[in-house]
Amino acid sequence: MKGDVFSRVTYWYIQPLLILGSKKTLTIDDLWRPDKSHSASAIHTKFERYWRLELEKAKKENRKPQLINALLRAYFPALLLGFGEYCIKTVCTFMSPILLNALLTFLGSGDTRSYIGYYIATGILLNALISVFMGVESWITAMGTGYQIRTAINSHVFRKSLRLTNASRQSTSTGQINNFLTTDSGHLMNYMQFTYLILGIPIHIIVAIYLLWQQLGASCLAGLAVIFLAFPIQRFIGARQTKVFTTKQARGDKRIELVNETLASIKLLKLYGWDMLFHKRVTEARDLELESIKLLGVYKSLDDLVSKVTPLFVSLASFAVFTVVNSGSGLYLDANRIFVSLYLFDILSMPIAATGAVFNLGSAAWASQKRIET
């Protein structure tokens, strides 16, 4: 799909498709042809080249080849582009409280040069536009790379399934392969497309703490202590999720295997009256899988709870310590300090919340990689 610069920046090129979709049901003929580099054959060829390099390197180093290494080599440029776009967005994010501080300082100074205020307000607007644009671009890059990674994994699994020996076919069920193509490849996709967060989150937190130090001084360390207390809790929850997820996947494989076995032999089951016996076996396997899914939901809820309440306790601890420490020094929480600090705490809440998600994505991806490699 081609378009001018304005169309690319504003995504106006998709408007005709949206109008057409409001008038009728879209079909495959209404969509644009994908780029040849996005086809399954091109993605498979590219990944297999890097997979062979990983096999050769693993053989020289006398270790097992790792799927993650091949994926990183194949899609490192795209991941680096996403990280660069994310860094620009992060810079714009931290420019917002700096510009807000400048605007509040100007309004409180009584300066009559109004053009300074207009300049600052214009800077806030332009900064917000750039931040939104780079945020969307980084998201598009991440999603596009993620789906290419999923296609590469699925084609690799499908190719490997066609070359299984008879002995391997006995130990690998259709349900297990189906889980590789759906659930496991999805977890690896989710993790790989957001790898830039692994580098971005520490930078995000360090810069936010530095700016908070400018506003609250050493009192912001109280908030930092709360963050460090939250990290091991989230890590523990992520480790438990990995263990439960591995169990859930194994139980899911067993359930699908039993269902396929039942459907393949349905005539014999009816003939000999074994249908209730197999129904009981499938139900028991399903109940075990549902038990693991329920436990995963509990851990996810706990992780969401920690992510949501941590920013609240961070701001509460920092403001409380600042008030106590500076009660006799003449420093107080004025509007400038409060609004800028709250803005920074809001910015800080994003990487804190994402930390738990990164742990969860990493845990699920690690378990999925082990399942596929075996």
TrEMBL record:
Question: In terms of one coarse class, where is the protein primarily found?
Answer: membrane
- State the organism named in the record: Rhizoclosmatium globosum
Q: Name one GO molecular function term.
A: ABC-type transporter activity
**Name of this protein:** ABC transmembrane type-1 domain-containing protein
Residue span, ABC transmembrane type-1 domain: 90-364
Membrane-related topology note: Multi-pass membrane protein
Transit peptide as UniProt keyword:
no
Question: Can you cite an annotated GO cellular component?
Answer: membrane
The source's superkingdom equals: Eukaryota
Q: Which UniProt keywords apply?
A: ATP-binding, Membrane, Nucleotide-binding, Transmembrane, Transmembrane helix, Transport
Segments crossing the lipid bilayer: 116-140, 194-213, 219-238, 309-332, 338-361
Kindly indicate where the leader peptide sits in this chain: none
Please name the PANTHER family in this protein's record: ATP-BINDING CASSETTE SUB-FAMILY C (PTHR24223), ATP-BINDING CASSETTE SUB-FAMILY C MEMBER SUR (PTHR24223:SF461)
- What Pfam families is this protein classified in? ABC_membrane
- Family annotation (InterPro entries): ABC1_TM_dom, ABC1_TM_sf, ABC_transporter_C-like, ABCC_6TM_D1
Q: Where in the cell is it found?
A: Membrane
